[in-house]
Amino acid sequence: MSHPRSRLDEVIHSPVRFSVVAALAAADRVEFRFVRDTVEVSDSALSKQVSVLEEAGYVKVHKTAVGRRTRTSLSLTREGRDAFARHVEALRDIAAGRLADGAEQV
Amino acid sequence: MDVGREEALGALEQAEAMDAHTRGRGRWYAGYATVYAAASCGLLLALGLMPSPVTVAWATPLFLVVIAGLTAFALSRPVQPRGYKALHGGMIAAWSGIYTLTVVVGATAFPGEMLWWGPGALASAVPPLVVAYVALRRGRSTR
User: Fold this and answer.
1) Which spans are transmembrane here (chain B) (predicted)?
2) Chain A closest-CA separation from residue B9 CA (Å)
3) Is A24 touching B (CB cutoff 8 A)?
4) CA distances from A76 to A13, A23, A79, B106 (A)
5) Domains along chain A?
6) Chain A residues with beta carbon closer than 8 angstroms to that of B83
7) What is the DSSP string of B31-80?
8) Which residues on chain B are in Cβ contact (under 8 Å) with A97?
9) Cα distances (Å, whole numbers) of residue A4 to A86, B121, B127
10) Rg (CA), chain B
11) N or C: which terminus of chain A carries fewer CB neighbours within 10 A?
């Protein structure tokens, strides 16, 4: 019997990255500024975490020219959504005290 | 990774809060679609009940101005709701069909007839109102 913690995703597990992915999972695309304010981190801290998620193939960064400004928005890739769903499922199992095969922990 | 029950519960609560916050900000599309429904109704009633080139000359540009305003509003929103492209594409396709049918048949067979243009105008509002309802429902957290 394996413990559900073995199914946790190492990239998503970091608290900031977990919040970023959770925020992105609820939408198709979210503006960088909105994610920054929602997660309550600085621009640079968010950029750093987004780079890690992008390298893992979980997040896509979109840059759009709006007048003279560049608007940056983020979206989850299919892999990112799947990884987040698996991670949340593992967290639910841990919270419920379930093992991988559905057995309850004693 | 060593994650205990309390930590897992805390993370799930955090995910729920993020989900609710982002979803809530995606509800703007309900307002967008409701204004679209009203504009469509107004356009068809004007075109149908006051059939003249003058009506076409002011009603169509006015409708286009409303659509341009809605587009600018949509582009300025920070959150694009989940399934937005499919929802909006489906709405525009259904609305285009109803609008075209109402105008083509109405202009040739029922000019100025309230019994045709009234229901036609209301029918054109149905697709945007349906997606407004869907957007409101999706705007609620599901976790």
Assistant:
1) 28-50, 56-75, 87-110, 116-136
2) 6
3) yes
4) 16, 10, 8, 46
5) 4-92 (1.10.10.10)
6) 28
7) HHHHHHHHHHHHHHHHHHHS-SHHHHHHHHHHHHHHHHHHHHHHHH-SEE
8) 5
9) 10, 55, 44
10) 21
11) C
C-alpha B46/C-alpha B58 separation (Å) is: 10
Per-residue model confidence as pLDDT tens digits over B105-125: 999 999 999 999 999 999 999
- Using CB atoms, which residue from B4, B25, B84 is nearest to A34? B25
Please give the pLDDT value at position B16: 94
CB B70, CB B32: distance < 8 Å: yes
**Spatial separation of the C-alpha atoms in residues B18 and B13, rounded to whole Å:** 9
- Contact at 8 Å (CB) between A72 and A62? yes
DSSP one-letter string for A8-21: S-HHHHSHHHHHHH
Q: Name the token pair of B121.
A: 């105008």
User: Which stretches of chain A are assigned E, i.e. beta strand?
Assistant: 27-31, 59-66, 69-76
Residues of chain B with pLDDT under 70: 1, 141-143
Q: Reduced to 3 states, what is the DSSP secondary structure of residue A62?
A: strand
Within 8 A by CB and 6+ apart from B93, the residues are: none
- Give me the pLDDT at residue A22, please: 97
CA distance A71 to A7: 35
Q: What is the ipTM for the molecules in this complex? A: 0.84
Tokens of B20: 């609710």
* Residues in Cβ contact with B113 at an 8 Å cutoff, skipping those fewer than 6 apart: B48, B106
Cα-based torsion angle of the residue sequence B87, B90, B96, B99 in order, rounded to the nearest 10 degrees: -70
